[in-house]
Here is the input.
Amino acid sequence: FSRGMLALGTNEPRPAASLQLLQRFAAVFDQTYTRFLDLQKAEAQAKEAQIETALERVRSRSMGMQKSEELKEVIKIVYQQLKHLKINLDHAGFVIDYIPGGDWHFWIADEQDIPSKITHPWIESVWANQFNEAKEKGVDIFATHLNFEEKNKFYNKLLSYVPGLPEASKDFYLNCPGLAASTVLFENVSLYIENFSGTPYTEEENNTLMRFGKVFQQTYTRFLDLQKAETQAREAQIEAALERVRSRSMGMQKSEELREVIQLVLQQLQQLNFNIDVATFNLDYKENDDLNIWTAVPGQPYSTKLHISYFDHPVFNRMKEAKEKGLDFFTDKYDFEEKNVFFEHFFNNLKGVPEDRKQYVLNTPGYARSVVLMKNIAMGIQNYQGIPFSKHENAIIKRFAKVFEQTYTRFLDLQKAEAQAREAQIEASLERVRSRTLAMQKSDELAETSAVLFQQLILLGIEPNRLYITIIKDDEANAEFWITDEDGSKVSSAFETNMNHNHVFKKMLDGWKAKRNTLTIDMQGEELQEYFQYLSSLHVPFKGGLTQTRRIQYIGYFANGFIGMASPDEQPEETVQLLVRFAAVFNLTFTRFNDLKIAEAHALQAEEDLVKLQTEKRRAEDALTELKATQTQLIQSEKMASLGELTAGIAHEIQNPLNFVNNFSEVSKELLDEMREAIEKGDTEEAKEIMNDVIKNLEKINHHGKRADGIVKGMLQHSRSSTATKEPTDINKLADEYLRLAYHGLRAKDKSFNATMKTDFDESIGNINIIPQDIGRVILNLITNAFYVVDEKKKQNPTGYEPTVTVSTKKINGKVEIKVTDNGNGIPQKVLDKIFQPFFTTKPTGQGTGLGLSLSYDIVKAHGGELKVETKEGEGSEFIISLPVNI
Here is the structure.
């Protein structure tokens, strides 16, 4: 027939009728085959429609994915559609991002509602080797058939990486007869189906699997796009959370706001879906092995600071090990028993933890934590389910730790600024107490100063029941107490007692005797009641009376007692140190108090002495008047002595020109007699010559007369009283004139006196502004003294000695030096410091007043100059007058 043939086989020939009958049946079967083909085509079309519908369901769900985590739902649909297509499979597997020889990451879909994701290292097996070979050769599909032994060898290893698998499931996998699988491979995913009956898949089933693999490749591309978008959104969410922490950190105005930032860190981690029961922040983890941490707990508005002493436990030891190794991160987890050993110690050493919180922690299944160790802080997150944090979560916590490290830097800066401000505040308070101390005028102002001290302590934030100052008065322990009222606001009373009469006071006294800086006495029970009763006997009032159950005494000592504070609550160390510092200042107050008492005790004596002093004052004034009169007489005597020397010098100086005048007058008279004789003889030439000689003599007489007149005028000018008017003066000429006057004055007194005079004048000096009469007296005095000492040495008849006095001038650095040098015996060291003192003289009684050098010194000083002396015993002295050029 048209599409085949119909044949009958026999050993005997068939008649024609049989052949006709066979032809008729062939014609009918032709129709049957046509029907078969039609049905087969329809079935193929229906199958294709069924497959395409299944694929479309996968595509539709893939395109409907909004989150990457919905991939598992698509995987479930793939498995369901393959089952719907009557493919014999126990599992459908989806291998993701396979790397030959690397870890396997795949999803397994079966009859369970939720597919399972499994990760395990590469396992040596027939299927794994086929997979590698197919990837290397670029084959897109391969089939696998494992017998019972091969299958179990592979599954024994595989099932060890599937935690929590029921025993029944394990038995099923290991007892089934074999394994048949078909695997298709694409760019970054692979899809396989498997059954444990060992029945290989048909070509049609493999083609269907290939088509599903292509659709799932699109699904995985969609998954990667969603995952990338989610990663970007997650990153934006993380960065926003970090920025909130940064902003809050930069907004910190006080260091105490750190606790708010810590709580904010926890809140941001919670918003990032971290499973956290507590976050910890160890700010000094490098200092010791104790736990000094801030803890942030969900639901609490602020973080809490805790201290737990180290003990031998893995929680402590793991942290210690990480520090020693210099790690920057570690994770650990503990089971129920290990966790509770640690937290029982934790709660036993920590007061105030609510009971329900303790029970919650102790009843949780485990403990897992991740800890980041930075330069200054260690930040940790924990949960009590014992579930380790993921790699992604650990990466995030590291970023938060870096941001919190910056927060801690801000915290330290604020803390430093606050410490400086606090120190300035404390110092200002101390200065107020010091100022009030220095303002005390009477000893009874001690109470007011004490009140200022109390007020400043309270202004610094101390909240006492009472403040008090105790002054120990004597060795018998008698003491005076200045106390405030119960709120510490003002001094309410004072009382005295003996410190040995009460047990608590005795402790305070012992601390003072031991020269301690501080002391703390925590009174409760019987000791407190006994203390109250004793104070009541001293009539000290109490707010609340004997109902108080605890009273803590904080004491800061000073030299004569102590400052104390009574409080029902424990005080920080800063408060104790404040007491110490105020005690040190009050030590000054008490010193001032004692000084005032001593001054007041002396005041009466001073009043009694005042009359005596006034009487003595009058006597002294009378003596002073008499002394001034004597000094005036002595100064006048000194001036007269100087004037006498000056007058003698003037007389001796003008004697020389007068001699010339007399001599030339006598000669001229004789010449005039000779000229008259010549005229009478008529010898006019000789008369003219004689006349010329007379004229010359008269000129000489006139010259020496003027010279005598100049000497007299000059000397009289120098001998007049000073007008205190400075005028330009040739200092060289002045020194030379007074050298000659002094010499001739001494010669006039003593004809045997003789000495060599030398001068060395600087001609570049010119005139300087001085009062010539005053400076002349100084020069005259120094030269006269020089002549006196060389004459005294000459009288000792030293061998080869020639008395010499040298006067020199020199201009040096804007000053003029006038030196008077002698080669006498010098000035002994024991009198050198006294020579410029008034009335001191080494001359014999009656030969000097002791005012010459003193007056000379004052004159030079008045000119802005200096008078000094250089001497060497046995060799001579040099007096140096130093005067500024422009004075």
The mean pLDDT is 83. The radius of gyration is 63 Å. The first helix runs from residue 16 to 63. The longest strand covers residues 550-558.
